[in-house]
Request: fold
Amino acid sequence: KVAKKVDPFGDRTLVVVTKVDLMERGEESINLLKGITLPVKLGLVGVINRSQRDIDNGTTIKDSLEREDRFFTKSHPTIAARMGTGYLADRLSTLLLGHVKRCLPQLRARVSHMKGLQEAIIMDLGRPILKKGPAILELINQFSADFSGIISGNSTNINTSEISGGAKLFYIFQDTFGKALEDFDPMTGLTLSDVRHSVRNSMGTRPSIFIPEIAFEMLAKRQIGLLRDLCLRVVDLSYDELANTITVTCVRHFERFDNMKQAVMTAGVALLGERLAPTREMVENLLSIEQSYINTNHPDFIYRYREVTDRFLGEAGGREEPAGAQNTYQPTNPGRYNRPSLVDSRERTSSGVEVEHQLTRREREEVQMIERLVCHYFTIIRKQLQDSIPKTIMHFMVSYLAKNLSSSLISELYSEERFDELLSESESVRRKRDRAVKMLEALGEAQKVLGSLRDIPDV
Reply:
């Protein structure tokens, strides 16, 4: 009953009938031993076991087997060759060898796969390090090369879950910083009252024949200065991404050595931190340079300047627009100049004197023209900063770090007194490697055994 539950069709069952000598002789017993009564694919074998009386009387196994052979030869001569303990042992060995031969390819593949897994574990954990000085140099050089590869996009360890490294820096330069510059309104924080006051104050007691350039330069410098926080913000974002890249690369390269991971991470971020102040200073200088000299002879500005001044002076006709010139300004609110009075008719100065300031037609035109000139010039500077700020960050931070990271880490960490500290492994790593080594040795022995079974005869 138990055999039929696990092998209902009898394909894997071998029936053994014991104590055949005690069975009643007749057609029923013959049919049972021939497999007619209980048909199974692997056959039926009858045996005669030693009884307790035989054991007590000192009957040996050899004598028992000889008696068994005589019994089957005399009582069942037609099936005697397939009966007995000796035939049962041969039959079981044949079945076992046949099963092993059928399973050999699968066993060999499984052992090879398991061996490969253990070798990979040992490779990841690393063998015990004997020459620690060269090992530290190699680890530092590999870390520096991987860091540079992540920045340049040549690393084999590509992050598939999010953009990082050089791709993240490009995103910061082009999307974050570039879009913020494009969306920045040139007239941010600049009211019509500011422009009007600048124009009037630049004239003093004398009315100006031409558009006052002092007012234009003052307002242009003021608007350029508004980009300072935005430019410094992109420096900070780049610093954060580079620091994150150092941290992630350390975690991947120095998983085996916690002390070295912390030391390299600290030294790398410290080197990056040393470049933050010079980079911010250079960005500040770029903005100060743009503010220190308003170049009205800039090739992209000079045509717009002449166009505005010609219109203000009322020259007849107009100039043809030179090839390549681009209209870089669109009025933010054209209707703002069409009102007869832009603000209240009176305002009180800091000294308490009330002054009339209803704008004349000329004053409205002056305000409008200066605003246009400021917008044109601001657009030029915005384009220059969109190009120069990323270059500054690349030179002062990214390229410097890629070139000097390895040498800086070596000078900081390569000391014979620190070798043992930096290359000390955690107990869990050592235990894991020992288990993998023992398993690899056992799998190697298993492969040898399986290799020796190639000449198993067919069954």
